[in-house]
C-alpha cells in the first residue's frame, strides 16, 4: 500500500482496484515460500499466469499469496485470505490438509483447493498428482543411461508423495532395464543439502551413475556433488535427475532430466474451472500424464542414446496414458508390478 | 563393500561436513575463552552464508574462479562486524550473554531473509556458479592408500579448517595474545590488575568468533548449499556450539568434535549400504549421529569445564 | 621529607556511600607502613585507588614527589607500584610462570618463550628468597606459595613500592614467619611496603609506622616504636578492646564425636586423611592445628558428608554416620561453619533472611506440607540478625551485599541457633577485625559452656591457643599429637605441625 | 526511581526502542512504517478472529517459555524444549486417537501423556547432567533431532499406516470448544489457555512458595551451598529438567489437542521451543514475565502474517523487531543507567 513496494512489485494493490467484484484467487505457501524452486514456486507461477491471462492485479481482489512461517500459520493464512474475500484459496502442500479441512468447514461459501492431499469437503477441490508416472519415465531414462546398472534414489522425508516418486521410479527402472538396481536412501529432511551431497557422494563412489533426488533443497547437494565431480573430471559419468520442475539449470552437464510436476498447470486449471463456475468441489482431480499434470523434462542433449531414450519415453507415455500400464504409487503396489 | 571403499566414501564426506562446523566452533572458542558466552553462532553462520552468496552472485564476473575465496573474506568481515552487536550488548551493556546470543540468532535470521526479499524480490537467491569444488591435493594424493582416502575428491576448505584449528590452538596456548585471552576468560580481575584491558580482549574474542563463524557459514553456503534461503543454515550453528563444548573449549578438541560429527553423519549415510544394517528401519540411521554423540559424551569425554568467568560481566571493583 | 608515596586527601565514593573520606597516607622510602582499620573501614578501597583500579573523586597522589594520575594498573606498574591483593588475583589453570608473566610476556618470534620466562622467574625467586615451582599449576600449590607468586608478580614488573592487603590472613604460622622474613629482605633490597593487616602483633613486629583509618576517615599515623597494641586498637575502633577471651576451665563429659581410622581422598585422588583418630567430648573445644593442606578440609568434608570417605568410622553421639547424606548428619546433631563462606556458607543471591533457614527450611515452622511459611522464616531471620548483631539494612537484602564479617556472623548465628551437639568451625574468623573475632570466640565458648562439643579448625595459632581446651595437631592426614594449650607454646606447635614428633619438639624447646 | 517501577518500565522501553529501530529499518528500505504497524495491529487485534488466533498462539508460547525459564532458574539451559514439545505433541495425539473414553478421563489422560512424554525426554539430559556431568546443552540439541526423526517414524509406522498425518483426535480428548471458536469467529482458540495460565501460577508457586522451590532456587544459584545445606543437588537437577520437560510436553499437548488435533510428519522443527528461549529470557525467567512476553510474541507472530498482504512488508521485519526487543531487554542495564540519570535530574 505504499510507494516503494508497489514499484518493486510493479503491481498495484487492492485499495484502488475496486472496479467490480471480479474473480480473485490466492494461495498459501508452506514454509518454503514461493521461491522454493519447487512446487510452491510452480504453483505461484501458475497463479501469476492465470492472473495475467485474466487481466487481474496482484493483491487483494486479484491474485496473491501468503507465506507461512510455521505449521501453525497455515490456518491463519487460509483464513485471512478467505476473510479478504478471495473466491478461491489454494493450500499448497499436504501439510496444509488439516488446516484446509477445518477452514473449509467454517467458510462454507468460499472455495478452497489443496495440492498433494485430499480433503473431503464439498467446497474443497483436491489436487493430486500421479508423481509415479513422471518418475516412472525418468526411471526409464535412468535405466537406459546407466552404464554400471547402478542407480540411486534420494528421498527427503518419508511420506506418501515421496513414496509415489520412489515406487514409480523403481518401476520405471525395472521396466526398462531389469538388471539395474536402485539404491534408495532417505535423508530425513528436505532442507539438508549436506546430507544430499554426502548421500550422492556415497552413491557415485559406490558405482552409481544416475541419481534421482525427490528431496527438495536436500537435492541441491546432489547437484553440487555431480557438478563437482564433472568439473574435476569431465569424463566422469555422473547424472542427476531433478524433481518437481525442469531442474536443468542446476547443472547443464549433469542433469539428465527431471520428473516434472505441473502444479502450475493444475492451479491454472482449477482456477479457470472455478472462474467459469465449474469448480470441482468435493472431488479429487488427478493430474497424471494424460492430463499434462506431470511429465519428464527434455533429456540432456549430451546423452549418447538420447533418441532411444526419447523414443522409449514416448512409448511408455502412450502405454500409461492408454491405461495399458498402471504405474505403482506405493511400495506395496511396486512389489506386484510387472511391466508388460 | 570393502573397508577401503567405505573409507573413500566416508572420509571426504566427513571432512566436507566438518569444515563449517570446525570454523564456527573455533569462533565459539575464541569468544568463550575470553569469557563471553556465544550461542549466537548460528546467527553468525547465517550472516556469513548470506554475505558470501550475495557477494558471489554479484561479483562472480569480476573475480572469476577466485570468487568463492574473496567471498569467504567478505563473509569473514561481515561476521566480525555483526558480532560487534553481541560484543556491545554482552560486554559494554552488560546484557546476559545468552539473551544477547539468542537475539543475535533471531536478528540474523530476520535480517538475512528480509534483505534477500528486499534485494531479489523473492525468498531465496539464485544458485551460485562458482563454489568450492572438489579437488585432489597435489603430491599428497599419490601417497598409497592414505592419498586415496584423505587427499582425493576432497575440498581445500576442509584442509583449511584443519590448518586453522591447529593455528588457533597455537594462538590460544602459545602466544601472549592467547594467554591474555584466556586470563580474561578465567579471572578478569586478575587480568585487569596485570594491566590487561579486559574489555578490549573480550571484544577481540567476540569479533574473532564473528569472523570465524562468518567463514563457517560461507564455507557451508559455497561448498554445500550453493544458494541462500531460509533453510540454508538450520541448526549448524548449534551443532558447532555442541562441537565446541564436546571439544572442551580447545581448538584441537573442536577439530576432533567437528570431525566426529561429520563422521557420525557419514556413517549414518553409509549404513544403509552395509549388509548387516540394510534391513533395519531407516529411523535408526537418521538418529544415529545424535545418539552416537550422546553416547560419546557419556562414555569417554567426561565433564567439560567452561572457562571460569564464561558468561560473567567484568565490572571494575565488583566482586 | 622523602616520601615515595603520598596520598593526599583522598575521597572515594560508591554511589552515595563514602568509602574514603579525606584520607591522607604518606609512605617513606624503605619503610614498612602498616594500614589498620576495621572491616569495611576503607583500606582495600584506598589501596585500589593507589593501584589504579578505582579513580578517586578528590585528592592527589604523588609518587616520589611527582603528582601522578593513576588511571589503571598499567600506570601503577609503570610507576613501580605493585599490589598483592586480599583475594588472590591468580588464574587457577595457569602455571606459576604464566601467572607471573601475564601482560608482560617474554616472547620469541611471536610465541611465548616459556623456557626463558621460567628461568627469569627462578632468578627473581632466588634473589628474594621466594621459593616457587615455576612450572606448577596454581590450583596445585599451597596458599603460601600462591602468595609468593603474587609477590613475584610485582617484583617481575620491577615494583619499588609493594602493597600487601591482608597477606597473613590465609597463612600458617610458618608461612607468616617466612613472609615477614621476605618483607624484611625486600626492604633491604630498597623496596617500600604498605601492609594491611588486622593483626596488631604483626604490626608491632615488622612495621615502622602505622596509619589508622576508621569508617572511611583517617585517624592518624603513629611510629610503631612509640605505641602499643592497646593504643592501636583504641584508635581503630574508638574505644578500649579486650583481647584475651575470658573462659572458665572446660568440664568435658562423654564423647560426642569419635573418629577411627578415617581415610579420605582429595579431589585429585590422593590420600589426604590417612587413618585419622580423634574424639571430641561434650563441653570442650578441640582445636585442630596444622599447616594448610594436611587434610583439614577433607576431614571436615568427610565428617559432614560432603566428601566420600574411603574407610574408617565417624560416630556422633555413638551413632555411625560415615558416608551418610549431609542432611542425615546434620539432623543427627552436627553444625558446620564452613571454611569458604561464599562457596558453601551462603547463597549470595538469596536474601539474608532465606539464608538463615538454608538448612532447616523444610522443617516446621518454616515449611508446612511442602509450603514455605515466609512469616516464620523472616521472624527467625530478624531474631538471629539482632541476636548475632548482623549489620544489614534489612533481612530482605541479598546476602551478597553484606560485608564479609557480617556474612560470617549470619552463618554463625544460623549454625549456633540450631544448637548442634557438635559444632564444627572451620576458619571462623578469617579476615575479620578484632571486634568481630572476639564476638565469634565468645560464641564458640558459650556453646562449649552449654555442654556442646566444638571442633575448631584454624591456621591461626593465636586463635587455636586461646580458644581450644585441647589441641590436636594434624600432619599428613593424621593426628600426630594432642596437647594441652596451657602446656605448650607456638614454637612447639609449629614444630609439631611441621612433622617433628612430640619428643623432638620437646627437646627443641 | 523504585526498583519495582524500573522493572516494569525497562521492558516497555525496550519494546519501544525495538519498534523505533524497526521503523528506521523500514524507512531506510523504503517501506511505509505506519501502514506496516497498522497491518501488524490489524493482524493481531483488528478482528476478534485474529485476537482468538493470538491467544491460541500465546498458549504454547507460555508453556514453552515456562519450560525454558524453569530450567534457567536452576542454572540449566534447556535448548531441548523443541524436542520435548514434539514428543509431547505426539503422545497427546497418540492417546487422543487411540482410546474411546469419556471426556473426563480421556482429555486429562492425553494431557498427562504429553506431560509425561516431555518430562521423560528431558529426564535424559537431566540424568546425564546429574550423574555424569555431561553438558545439558549438547544433549538437548542432539535429542531435538532424535525426537524429530523418531516422531516422524512413529507417525508413519505406528500411529498410521504409512500416512503423513494421523487422523483427528477423538472429540473426547479435544481441548477445542465450539463456544470459544464461535465467539472468536472460528479462530482456533481452545481451552489450553486456561492450562497455560494455571501453569504460570504453578511455576510461580512452586518456585517461590514451596520447599522444593527453595531447593531448586538454591541449587540454581549455588550448588555448593545447596549441597552443604543438605540438599540433594543431583536429584534437584533432574527434577528441574523433568519439570521443564513437563511444561514443554504440555505445550505440545496444546498443539496436539487444541490447535491442530492431529500430528503430521515434520520436515523440520516447529520453532516453538526456540521461540520459548526468547520468551523466557524476555520475561526474565519469571512466571509473570513469561506470561507477558508470550503475549507480545504471540501478537507479533500472528500479526506479522498480515503484513505482506496489507502493507507489502516482508514479515521477516517482525522477526527483526522481536530480535531487537530481546536485545534491548538484555541491555536493560544501560537503559537503567539512562533512566537513573534522568531520574536524578528530575529530583534536582
Ligand atoms: N565496589 C563497591 N561498591 C560499593 N561499595 C563498596 C565497594 N567496595 C567497597 N565498598 C564500600 O566501601 C567500604 C570500604 O570497603 P573496603 O573494602 O575498602 O574495606 P576494608 O577496610 O578493606 O575492609 P576489610 O578489612 O574487610 O578488608 C565498604 O564497607 C563498602 O561499604
Ligand atoms: N559490587 C558491590 N556492590 C555493593 N557493595 C559492595 C560491592 N562489592 C563490595 N561491596 C561492599 O564491600 C564491603 C566489604 O567489601 P570487602 O570485600 O572489603 O569485604 P570484606 O569484609 O573484606 O569481606 P571478605 O572477608 O570476604 O574479604 C561490603 O560491605 C559490601 O557491601
Ligand atoms: Mg579489604
Ligand atoms: Mg576483608
UniProtKB/TrEMBL annotation, chain B:
Pfam families: BPD_transp_2. It comes from the Bacteria. It comes from Neobacillus paridis. It is a multi-pass membrane protein. PANTHER family: GUANOSINE ABC TRANSPORTER PERMEASE PROTEIN NUPQ (PTHR43370:SF1), SUGAR ABC TRANSPORTER INTEGRAL MEMBRANE PROTEIN-RELATED (PTHR43370). Keywords: Cell membrane, Membrane, Transmembrane, Transmembrane helix. The keyword Membrane applies. This is ABC transporter permease. It is found in: Cell membrane. Its main location: membrane. The chain crosses the membrane at residues 6-31, 43-63, 69-91, 155-173, 203-222, 254-277, 283-302.
UniProtKB/TrEMBL annotation, chain C:
Residues 5-240, 257-501 form the ABC transporter domain. Signal peptide: none annotated. The keyword Glycoprotein does not apply. Keywords: ATP-binding, Nucleotide-binding. CDD domains: ABC_Carb_Monos_I (cd03216), ABC_Carb_Monos_II (cd03215). Gene3D superfamilies: P-loop containing nucleotide triphosphate hydrolases. GO terms for molecular function: ATP binding. InterPro entries: AAA+_ATPase (IPR003593), ABC_carbohydrate_import_ATPase (IPR050107), ABC_transporter-like_ATP-bd (IPR003439), ABC_transporter-like_CS (IPR017871), P-loop_NTPase (IPR027417). This is ABC transporter ATP-binding protein. The lineage of its organism: Bacteria, Bacillati, Bacillota, Bacilli, Bacillales.
TrEMBL record, chain D:
Its main location: membrane. Keywords: Cell membrane, Membrane, Transmembrane, Transmembrane helix. The chain crosses the membrane at residues 12-34, 54-72, 79-99, 105-124, 189-207, 237-265, 277-300, 320-339. It comes from the Bacteria. The keyword Transmembrane applies. It is a multi-pass membrane protein. It is found in: Cell membrane. CDD domains: TM_PBP1_transp_TpRbsC_like. This is ABC transporter permease. It comes from Neobacillus paridis.
Amino acid at each position: 500500500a505504499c510507494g516503494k513496494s508497489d514499484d518493486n512489485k510493479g503491481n498495484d494493490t487492492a485499495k484502488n482496484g475496486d472496479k467490480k467484484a471480479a474473480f480473485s484467487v490466492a494461495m498459501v505457501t508452506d514454509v518454503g515460500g514461493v521461491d522454493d524452486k519447487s512446487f510452491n514456486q510452480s504453483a505461484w507461477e501458475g497463479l501469476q499466469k492465470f492472473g495475467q491471462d485474466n487481466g487481474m492485479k496482484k493483491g487483494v481482489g486479484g491474485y496473491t499469496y501468503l507465506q507461512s512461517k510455521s505449521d501453525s500459520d497455515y490456518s491463519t493464512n487460509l483464513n485471512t485470505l478467505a476473510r479478504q474475500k478471495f473466491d478461491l484459496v489454494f493450500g499448497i502442500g499436504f501439510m496444509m490438509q488439516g488446516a484446509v479441512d477445518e477452514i473449509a468447514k467454517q467458510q462454507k461459501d468460499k472455495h478452497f483447493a489443496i495440492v498433494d492431499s485430499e480433503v473431503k469437503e464439498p467446497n474443497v477441490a483436491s489436487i493430486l498428482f500421479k508423481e509415479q508416472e513422471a518418475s516412472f519415465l525418468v526411471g526409464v531414462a535412468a535405466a537406459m543411461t546407466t552404464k554400471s546398472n547402478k542407480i540411486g534414489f534420494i528421498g527427503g522425508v518419508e511420506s506418501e508423495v515421496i513414496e509415489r516418486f520412489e515406487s514409480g521410479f523403481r518401476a520405471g527402472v525395472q521396466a526398462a532395464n531389469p538388471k539395474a538396481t536402485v539404491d534408495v536412501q532417505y535423508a530425513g529432511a528436505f532442507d539438508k543439502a549436506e546430507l544430499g551431497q554426502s548421500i550422492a557422494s556415497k552413491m557415485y563412489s559406490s558405482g552409481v551413475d544416475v541419481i534421482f533426488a525427490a528431496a527438495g533443497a536436500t537435492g541441491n547437494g546432489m547437484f553440487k556433488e555431480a557438478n563437482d565431480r564433472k568439473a574435476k573430471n569431465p569424463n566422469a559419468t555422473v547424472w542427476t535427475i531433478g524433481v518437481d520442475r525442469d531442474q536443468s539449470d542446476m547443472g547443464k552437464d549433469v542433469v539428465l532430466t527431471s520428473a516434472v510436476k505441473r502444479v502450475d498447470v493444475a492451479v491454472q486449471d482449477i482456477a479457470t474451472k472455478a472462474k467459469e463456475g465449474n469448480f470441482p468441489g468435493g472431488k479429487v482431480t488427478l493430474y497424471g500424464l494424460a492430463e499434462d499434470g506431470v511429465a519428464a523434462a527434455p533429456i540432456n542433449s549430451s546423452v549418447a542414446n538420447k533418441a532411444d531414450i526419447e523414443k522409449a519415453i514416448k512409448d511408455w507415455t502412450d502405454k500409461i496414458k492408454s491405461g495399458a500400464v498402471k504405474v505403482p504409487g506405493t511400495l506395496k503396489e511396486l512389489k506386484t508390478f510387472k511391466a508388460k | 563393500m570393502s573397508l577401503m571403499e567405505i573409507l573413500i566414501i566416508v572420509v571426504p564426506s566427513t571432512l566436507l561436513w566438518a569444515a563449517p562446523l570446525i570454523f564456527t566452533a573455533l569462533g565459539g572458542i575464541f569468544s568463550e575463552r575470553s569469557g563471553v558466552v556465544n550461542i549466537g553462532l548460528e546467527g553468525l553462520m547465517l550472516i556469513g552464508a548470506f554475505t558470501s552468496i550475495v557477494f558471489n552472485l554479484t561479483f562472480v564476473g569480476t573475480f572469476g574462479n577466485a570468487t568463492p575465496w574473496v567471498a569467504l573474506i567478505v563473509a569473514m568481515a561481515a561476521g566480525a562486524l555483526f558480532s560487534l552487536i553481541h560484543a556491545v550488548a554482552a560486554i559494554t551493556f552488560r546484557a546476559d550473554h545468552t539473551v544477547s546470543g539468542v537475539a543475535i540468532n533471531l536478528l540474523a535470521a530476520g535480517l538475512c531473509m528480509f534483505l534477500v526479499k528486499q534485494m531479489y524480490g523473492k525468498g531465496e537467491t539464485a544458485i551460485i556458479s562458482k563454489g568450492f569444488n572438489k579437488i585432489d591435493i597435489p603430491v599428497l594424493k599419490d601417497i598409497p592408500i592414505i592419498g586415496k582416502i584423505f587427499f582425493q575428491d576432497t575440498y581445500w576448505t576442509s584442509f583449511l579448517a584443519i590448518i586453522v584449528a591447529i593455528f588457533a590452538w597455537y594462538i590460544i596456548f602459545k602466544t601472549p595474545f592467547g594467554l591474555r585471552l584466556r586470563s580474561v576468560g578465567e579471572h578478569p580481575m586478575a587480568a585487569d590488575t596485570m594491566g590487561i584491558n579486559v574489555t578490549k580482549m573480550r571484544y577481540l574474542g567476540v569479533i574473532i568468533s564473528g569472523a570465524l563463524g562468518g567463514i563457517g557459514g560461507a564455507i557451508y553456503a559455497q561448498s554445500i548449499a550453493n544458494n541462500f534461503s531460509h533453510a540454508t543454515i538450520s541448526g549448524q550453528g548449534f551443532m558447532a556450539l555442541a562441537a565446541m563444548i564436546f571439544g572442551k573449549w580447545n581448538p584441537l578438541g573442536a577439530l576432533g568434535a567437528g570431525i566426529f560429527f561429520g563422521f557420525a553423519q557419514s556413517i549414518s549415510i553409509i549404513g544403509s549400504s552395509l549388509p548387516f544394517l540394510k534391513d533395519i528401519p531407516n529411523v535408526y540411521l537418521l538418529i544415529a549421529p545424535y545418539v552416537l554423540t550422546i553416547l560419546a559424551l557419556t562414555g569417554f569425554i567426561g565433564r567439560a569445564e567452561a572457562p571460569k568467568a564464561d558468561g560473567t560481566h567484568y565490572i571494575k571493583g565488583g566482586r | 621529607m622523602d616520601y615515595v608515596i603520598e596520598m593526599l586527601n583522598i575521597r572515594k565514593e560508591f554511589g552515595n556511600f563514602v568509602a574514603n573520606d579525606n584520607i591522607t597516607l604518606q609512605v617513606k622510602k624503605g619503610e614498612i607502613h602498616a594500614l589498620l582499620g576495621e572491616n569495611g573501614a576503607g583500606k582495600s578501597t584506598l589501596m585500589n585507588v593507589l593501584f589504579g583500579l578505582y579513580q578517586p573523586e578528590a585528592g592527589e597522589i604523588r609518587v616520589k614527589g611527582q603528582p601522578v594520575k593513576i588511571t589503571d594498573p598499567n600506570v601503577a606498574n609503570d610507576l613501580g607500584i605493585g599490589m598483592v591483593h586480599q583475594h588472590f588475583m591468580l588464574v587457577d589453570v595457569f602455571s606459576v610462570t604464566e601467572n607471573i608473566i601475564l601482560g608482560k610476556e617474554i616472547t620469541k618470534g611471536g610465541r611465548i618463550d616459556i623456557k626463558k620466562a621460567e628461568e627469569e622467574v627462578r632468578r627473581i625467586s632466588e634473589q628474594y628468597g621466594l621459593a616457587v615451582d615455576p612450572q606448577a599449576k596454581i590450583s596445585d600449590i599451597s596458599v603460601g606459595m600462591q602468595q609468593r607468586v603474587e609477590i613475584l608478580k610485582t617484583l617481575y614488573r620491577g615494583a619499588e613500592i609493594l602493597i600487601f592487603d591482608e597477606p597473613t590472613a590465609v597463612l600458617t604460622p610458618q608461612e607468616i614467619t617466612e613472609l615477614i622474613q621476605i618483607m624484611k629482605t625486600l626492604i633491604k633490597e630498597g623496596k617500600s611496603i604498605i601492609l594491611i593487616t588486622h593483626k596488631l602483633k604483626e604490626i608491632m613486629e615488622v612495621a615502622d609506622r602505622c596509619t589508622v583509618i576508621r569508617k572511611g576517615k583517617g585517624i592518624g599515623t603513629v611510629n610503631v616504636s612509640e605505641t602499643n597494641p592497646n593504643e592501636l586498637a583504641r584508635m581503630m575502633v574508638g574505644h578500649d578492646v579486650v583481647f584475651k577471651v575470658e573462659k572458665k576451665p572446660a568440664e568435658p563429659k562423654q564423647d560426642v564425636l569419635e573418629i577411627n581410622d578415617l581415610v579420605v581422598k582429595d579431589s585429585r585422588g590422593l590420600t589426604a586423611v590417612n587413618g585419622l583418630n580423634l574424639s571430641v567430648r561434650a563441653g570442650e573445644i578441640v582445636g585442630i592445628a596444622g599447616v594448610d593442606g594436611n587434610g583439614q578440609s577433607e576431614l571436615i568434608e568427610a565428617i559432614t558428608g560432603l566428601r566420600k570417605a574411603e574407610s574408617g568410622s565417624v560416630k556422633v553421639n555413638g551413632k555411625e554416620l560415615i558416608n551418610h547424606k549431609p542432611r542425615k548428619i546434620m539432623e543427627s546433631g552436627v553444625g558446620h561453619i564452613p571454611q569458604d563462606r561464599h562457596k558453601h556458607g551462603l547463597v549470595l543471591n538469596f536474601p539474608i533472611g532465606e539464608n538463615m533457614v538454608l538448612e532447616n527450611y523444610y522443617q516446621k515452622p518454616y515449611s508446612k506440607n511442602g509450603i514455605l511459611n515466609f512469616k516464620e522464616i523472616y521472624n527467625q531471620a530478624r531474631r538471629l540478625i539482632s541476636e548475632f548483631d548482623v549489620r544489614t539494612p534489612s533481612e530482605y537484602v541479598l546476602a551478597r551485599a553484606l560485608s564479609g564479617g557480617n556474612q560470617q556472623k549470619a552463618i554463625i548465628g544460623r549454625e549456633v541457633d540450631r544448637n548442634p551437639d557438635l559444632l564444627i568451625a572451620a576458619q571462623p574468623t578469617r579476615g575479620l577485625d578484632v571486634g568481630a573475632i572476639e564476638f565469634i570466640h565468645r560464641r564458640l565458648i558459650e556453646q562449649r559452656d552449654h555442654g556442646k562439643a566444638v571442633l575448631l579448625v584454624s591456621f591461626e595459632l593465636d586463635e587455636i591457643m586461646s580458644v581450644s581446651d585441647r589441641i590436636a595437631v594434624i600432619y599428613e592426614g593424621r593426628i600426630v599429637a594432642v596437647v594441652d594449650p596451657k602446656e605448650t607454646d607456638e614454637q612447639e606447635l609449629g614444630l609439631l605441625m611441621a612433622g617433628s614428633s612430640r619428643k623432638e619438639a620437646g627437646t627443641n624447646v | 526511581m523504585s526498583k519495582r517501577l524500573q522493572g516494569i518500565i525497562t521492558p516497555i522501553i525496550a519494546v519501544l526502542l525495538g519498534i523505533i529501530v524497526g521503523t528506521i529499518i523500514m524507512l531506510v528500505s523504503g517501506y511505509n512504517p505506519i501502514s506496516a504497524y497498522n497491518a501488524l495491529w490489524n493482524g493481531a487485534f483488528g478482528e476478534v478472529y485474529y485476537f482468538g488466533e493470538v491467544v491460541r498462539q500465546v498458549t504454547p508460547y507460555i508453556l514453552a517459555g515456562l519450560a525454558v525459564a524453569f530450567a534457567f532458574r536452576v542454572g540449566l539451559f534447556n535448548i531441548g524444549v523443541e524436542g520435548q514439545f514434539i514428543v509431547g505433541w505426539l503422545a497427546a495425539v497418540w492417546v487422543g486417537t487411540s482410546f474411546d473414553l469419556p471426556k473426563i478421563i480421556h482429555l486429562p489422560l492425553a494431557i498427562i501423556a504429553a506431560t509425561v512424554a516431555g518430562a521423560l525426554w528431558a529426564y535424559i539430559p537431566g540424568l546425564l547432567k546429574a550423574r555424569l556431568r555431561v553438558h545439558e546443552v549438547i544433549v538437548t540439541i542432539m535429542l531435538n533431532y532424535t525426537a524429530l526423526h523418531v516422531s516422524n517414524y512413529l507417525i508413519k509406522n505406528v500411529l498410521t499406516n504409512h500416512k503423513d498425518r494421523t487422523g483427528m483426535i477423538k472429540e473426547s480428548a479435544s481441548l477445542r470448544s465450539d463456544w470459544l471458536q464461535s465467539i472468536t469467529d472460528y479462530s482456533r482458540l481452545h481451552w489450553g489457555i486456561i492450562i497455560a495460565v494455571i501453569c504460570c501460577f504453578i511455576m510461580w508457586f512452586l518456585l517461590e512458595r514451596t520447599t522444593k522451590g527453595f531447593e531448586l532456587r538454591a541449587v540454581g544459584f549455588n550448588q555448593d551451598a545447596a549441597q552443604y545445606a543438605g540438599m540433594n543437588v543431583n536429584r534437584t537437577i533432574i527434577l528441574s529438567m523433568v519439570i521443564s520437560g513437563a511444561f514443554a510436553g504440555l505445550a505440545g499437548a496444546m498443539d496436539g489437542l487444541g490447535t491442530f488435533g492431529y500430528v503430521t510428519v515434520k520436515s523440520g522443527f516447529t520453532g516453538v521451543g526456540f521461540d520459548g528461549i526468547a520468551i523466557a529470557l524476555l520475561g526474565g525467567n519469571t512466571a509473570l514475565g513469561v506470561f507477558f512476553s508470550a503475549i507480545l510474541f504471540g501478537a507479533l507472530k500472528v500479526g506479522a502474517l498480515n503484513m505482506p498482504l496489507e502493507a507489502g512488508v516482508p514479515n521477516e521485519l517482525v522477526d527483526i523487531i522481536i530480535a531487537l526487543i530481546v536485545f534491548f531487554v538484555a541491555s536493560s542495564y544501560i537503559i537503567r543507567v539512562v533512566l537513573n540519570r534522568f531520574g536524578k535530574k528530575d529530583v534536582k
